Design the sequence.
């Protein structure tokens, strides 16, 4: 959600959970055509398993998923990043956040963390290099890394794909006006959490990811964006919006003025308060 500072009260927004974006790449790229000897001397291809990385996952979530799928000790995949030789831009400084592309990847008995990570990064580079995304990024004066960073914010903030272009427009409009982005998703990333509530004190934390106090994009991506978010980042929906709030599921409201936005926030707070009251009544009735 993007907005100006409000009085010290609890502010909330509904975050969106990651969606699955299935990508069936060539199995050969990960050596999926591994041959297993048979007793009769013949050989048959090993049937690969599938590792699904949802849109919006952060790097630690991806590392943990790879460790589980490969049945490795916790932390093995994270450790492999340093020696995997990943094809990351210099701006990333070796951090693959934002480049672990959300997709379905084949896994076999020969798969390694390094190979899987390399496949994910290679796929992200391919998506960022598609003509529409690459040309759009250049038109906006953005490097591929900046496109990935903006796309990751869109991925975290937009409740659904239909809203991605509008969220992107809010970001572009704020950047053009030298306004801080004020995105709760970057606060969540800084605090290593996912929540629907952000307090005034949260917006005052000392972090390069605090987009309430620091202007511009966050220093790195904050999750793994999908192709739709990348496309929205470089081709935002036309509009003059500077604010938005998800009032309730399926109802994200975009505003060009703060006065209009405050009305939407009031609706959001009213709905949240009513939902909390009903939940409390239900809990009391169940005792």
Sequence:
């Amino acid at each position: 959600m993007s907005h100006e500072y409000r009085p010290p009260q609890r502010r909330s927004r509904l975050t969106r959970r990651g969606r699955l974006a299935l990508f069936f790449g060539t199995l050969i790229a990960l050596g999926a055509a591994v041959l297993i000897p048979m007793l009769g001397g013949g050989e048959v291809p090993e049937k690969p398993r599938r590792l699904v990385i949802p849109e919006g996952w952060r790097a630690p979530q991806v590392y943990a998923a790879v460790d589980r799928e490969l049945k490795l000790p916790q932390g093995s995949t994270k450790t492999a990043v340093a020696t995997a030789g990943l094809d990351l831009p210099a701006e990333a400084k070796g951090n693959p956040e934002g480049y672990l592309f959300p997709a379905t990847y084949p896994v076999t008995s020969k798969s390694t963390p390094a190979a899987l990570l390399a496949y994910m990064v290679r796929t992200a580079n391919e998506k960022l290099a598609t003509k529409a995304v690459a040309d759009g990024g250049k038109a906006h004066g953005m490097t591929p890394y900046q496109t990935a960073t903006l796309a990751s914010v869109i991925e975290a903030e937009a409740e659904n794909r239909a809203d991605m272009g509008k969220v992107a427009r809010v970001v572009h409009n704020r950047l053009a006006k030298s306004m801080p982005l004020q995105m709760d998703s970057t606060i969540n990333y800084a605090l290593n959490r996912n929540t629907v509530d952000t307090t005034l004190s949260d917006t005052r934390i000392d972090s390069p990811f605090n987009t309430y106090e620091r202007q511009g994009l966050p220093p790195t991506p904050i999750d793994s964006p999908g192709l739709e978010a990348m496309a929205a980042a470089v081709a935002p929906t036309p509009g003059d919006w500077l604010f938005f709030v998800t009032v309730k599921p399926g109802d994200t409201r975009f505003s060009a003025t703060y006065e209009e936005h405050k009305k939407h926030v009031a609706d959001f707070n009213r709905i949240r308060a009513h939902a909390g009251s009903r939940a409390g009544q239900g809990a009391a009735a169940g005792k």
Q: What stands out?
A: The first strand starts at residue 11 and ends at 12. The chain has one domain: 1-31+47-281.
